[in-house]
Amino acid sequence: MIIRKIALVLLPFLSIIFFNGCSNEAKSNKEYTVMIPNPFVYVSSMDEAAAGAGFEFICPHSVDGYSKREISYIKNELFQVAFSGGNKKLYLRKAIGNNDISGDYRIYNKTHHSKFGTYDITLKGRDDGFCVAIWSHANFSYAVTSDSPLSEEQIFFFVNNMK
Q: Is the confidence at residue 99, as pLDDT, over 60?
């Protein structure tokens, strides 16, 4: 009987200790979460993005199957036009230099090097198509990144229409 009374008195305290011990919440006001700020500046026109990026980017104004267009840049570094429709996203990018600017670091089971005109293009994807295309020209890097696989012909359309 006395053990039962002690258990009833201690039970609320034990449950507090148990549940707080398993919590993901901060233990004190001195713990902070550090996040990197988004470097992209979102604008309403290609001219605004060109002024911010420091260079012009010519690319398709619209893409079949994608209803929304979003224009952004990273100051003096990168110009991006993103298209979305339903659950699909497509990114077209141009940046100063000769680097992989796709922003896609997934590992694909298919990598293909292709020649289109004077461009050497690296394509990455799966058996059902390509999700990444990267190439360089005249000290600029270009990338097409899609979460839906694209055919080589679709990639070549973008390569031909991005400058």
A: yes
